[in-house]
Amino acid sequence: MGKSVSTVFRPAEWDNSEEREKPKLEYLVTNKKTPPLELYLTAFASACSAEIVGYPFDVCKTRMQIQGEIAGRVGQKAAKYRGLLATAMGIVREEGLLKLYGGISAMVFRHSLFSGIKMLTYDYMREKMIVPDVDGRPQLSFLGSCIGGVVAGGTASVLTNPTELIKIQMQMEGQRRLRGEPPRIHNVLQALTSIYRTGGVAGLWKGTVPNTWRSALVTIGDVSCYDLCKRLLIAEFDLADNREVQFIAAMTAGVADAILSLPADVVKSRIMNQPTDEQGRGIHYKGSLDCLSRLVREEGFLAMYKGFIPYWMRVGPASVVFWMTFEQIRRFRGSEGY
Questions:
Q1: What pLDDT score does 302 carry?
Q2: What is the DSSP annotation of 231-244?
């Protein structure tokens, strides 16, 4: 296209009336830093808003991902994957309407840590990755943004892994009880203490590798893609940083998020949901690679994308709600577009 995909930050001395009439990339974004606490709380509030829309799809997605594993344990020759609607209706019919939000307390707890850490880390990395272009103007390259996304997602994931583990297990509690298995999780605090008693500190970080892999890919698809797509739209089409541009960028980020991260999400769900022995070791899978190879070998390559529709319906609308809320809170606070 003749232009590199970059985010360019406007020096203060460029801020005059002539330049404001040209809604180019370099005139729409500044390097003014958002106070860390404000950025953290904005990310948390936006993530919670997104969960109101997307969480039932997350529950259905988790159930669909683990059905093949359950089928193998009960002796079925093949998993009978139900579609999104059938899975949702089955949960409502067999367990009750509120089970579509089963584990939501764990998700809120997770976002109180994960989302803020992720955005703070990405914001820090984005600033560090800014380099001058050929004209001497500071810009953020595609590679730089992706590196920032990997570091941000990976860091937040490692630090908050126990909250994701609790969420996965709470989402599967209803199905465990229907199979006659004893209750495993009652609430977030009980889950933390129970997992710690069973596997110690290492047990709280079970599934860290696939979860970190997934979170890094999610952050590239969601945060990095949103950041770069919005700047590209502004630069290439001479647009203002408005709600329409933010909406298109958020939708694009949701699609990229789903495509990049779903295989890792399937592996993460299975690793985290599996029971452990007395030493805290997984009973069904030795690790992420073992889980992935068995998944493909026993259920086929496309099993990595089982639950794609609910996953995309979960991350797509949730991405839109997150970024629209995030940008509006910033606008209300008097900050410029992210």
A1: 84
A2: HHHHHHHT--S-HH
Indicate if the pLDDT at residue 257 is higher than 80: yes
Here the contacts of 31-40 (C-beta below 8 Å, separation 24 or greater) are: 31/127, 31/130, 31/138, 32/335, 32/336, 33/123, 33/127, 34/123, 34/330, 34/335, 36/120, 38/333, 38/335, 39/116, 39/119, 39/120, 39/123, 40/116, 40/117, 40/119, 40/120
Mean pLDDT of the chain: 81
- How much is the average pLDDT of 90-119? 89
Nearest CA to 63 among 75, 79, 76, 43?
79
Residues 88-117 have a mean pLDDT of: 89
- The predicted-structure confidence for 182-206, as pLDDT tens digits, reads as follows 767 777 888 888 888 888 888 888 8
Instruction: Quote the tokens at residue 74.
Output: 């009960």
133: DSSP letter: -
End-to-end CA distance of the chain: 24
Question: Where would I find the beta strands (DSSP E) of 3-80?
Answer: 7-8
User: What residue has token string 């594993």?
Assistant: 69
Instruction: Give tens-digit pLDDT for 117-166.
Output: 999 999 999 888 887 777 777 778 889 999 999 999 999 999 999 988 88
Q: Do the bridges between strand 131-132 and strand 7-8 make them parallel or antiparallel, or are there none, so unpaired?
A: unpaired
Inter-residue contact 309 to 81 (CB < 8 Å): no
Query: Of 261, 225, 226, which Cα lies nearest the Cα of 247?
Result: 226
Residue 241 and residue 303 in contact, taking contact as beta carbons nearer than 8 Å: no
Distance of CA 214 to the CA centre of its chain: 8
Q: Which residues are CB-neighbours of 143 under 8 A, at least 6 positions away?
A: none
